[in-house]
Amino acid sequence: MLALLALAGTWGRDLGVVVVVIVALVLAAAVLAAVHHAEVVAHRVGEPFGSLVLAVAVTVIEVALIVTLMVSGGPESASLARDTVFAALMITTTGIVGLSLLLGAQRFRVTLFNAEGSGAALATVTTLAALSLVLPTFTTSQHGPEFSSSQLAFAALASLALYGMFVLTQTVRHRDFFLPVAQEGQREQEDCDEHAAPPSNREALVSLALLLVSLIAVVGLAKVESPAIEEAVAGVGFPPSFVGVVIALLVLLPETLAAARAARRGRIQTSLNLAYGSAMASIGLTIPTIALASFWLEGPLVLGLGSTQLVLLALTVVVSVLTIVPGRATRLQGGVHLVLLAAFLFLAVNP
């Protein structure tokens, strides 16, 4: 509610530095509030539905930020969708996964998870990334790393189809593949003791309503803050593409905290569901939305990755497969993933 008041007071006005900082804090609080209410709803519906709710909520925020910045940015924001989606992909598959494995291994030495479910999620994420971010670099219908209209439509429909099939698999057909796996040495009652009782239906409905309010506030405040984000990135001398990294870091921070909490409780599968679910939703829902928005957005839509990004993506896929296939991991695997995240962030600043 405070975010809505801030939105009403700042919409359409030129903001000073102090007001920009205050609005940024309120925006961050609104993001945390949105994910908190998503967690309440998720706790009511249970796992793996909870991870799905969180992933979709975060992706709605991400899509809103991308579209508002693209509308206000003009032709200079042609690659914003690509930069943000790729940043979200790297943060989730290297950062969240690496941190979760590291935290879990610190407590249980060897972390256990379901290779069938996590492998299916990783395969879907890899296919989505290849269709939407890799192929535009090599297609010849358009000059540069862009899709033609028909190719963009195909990529959007394929993304929706893949995401829909995965959700059906995760929640209906093979739900047991995505349920938490008990860790070695973990007490049977320990996990139950660390969880509060599920909220009532009334509390879940109230949180659902407040989740929608929070998302509306985030969309509006993102529009208000967009000039300041771009000016700040330019002011410190970072490449314009770093705006996408800022957006991804902002919207995925609460998701990272949720995954870290789950990992410390030994619920590594929940952490992986959050990570890969967010990566999947980021591509599978953002690309179709941007495809629709391209009808009224002026200028080109750059989706193809550059050579450095392609190398990072290929290395991430190979490392992720080697991590997921055994169904168990140690601190080493977590550290390798985090080093990949560090390489991505360093090269985003210093390409």
UniProtKB/TrEMBL annotation:
Q: Which GO terms describe its cellular component?
A: plasma membrane
Q: Does the keyword Ion transport apply?
A: no
Domain Sodium/calcium exchanger membrane region stretches: 17-171, 207-348
Chief localization: membrane
Record keywords: Membrane, Transmembrane, Transmembrane helix
> Transmembrane stretches, by residue range?
15-37, 49-72, 84-105, 117-138, 150-168, 204-222, 242-262, 274-297, 303-325, 332-349
Pfam families xrefs: Na_Ca_ex (PF01699)
- Cite the InterPro entries for this sequence: Alkaline_pH_Ca-Antiporter, NaCa_Exmemb
Membrane topology of this protein:
Multi-pass membrane protein
Q: Where in the cell is it found?
A: Membrane
Q: What is this protein called?
A: Ca2+:H+ antiporter
Q: Which organism is it from?
A: Actinophytocola algeriensis
**Lineage per the UniProt record:** Bacteria, Bacillati, Actinomycetota, Actinomycetes, Pseudonocardiales
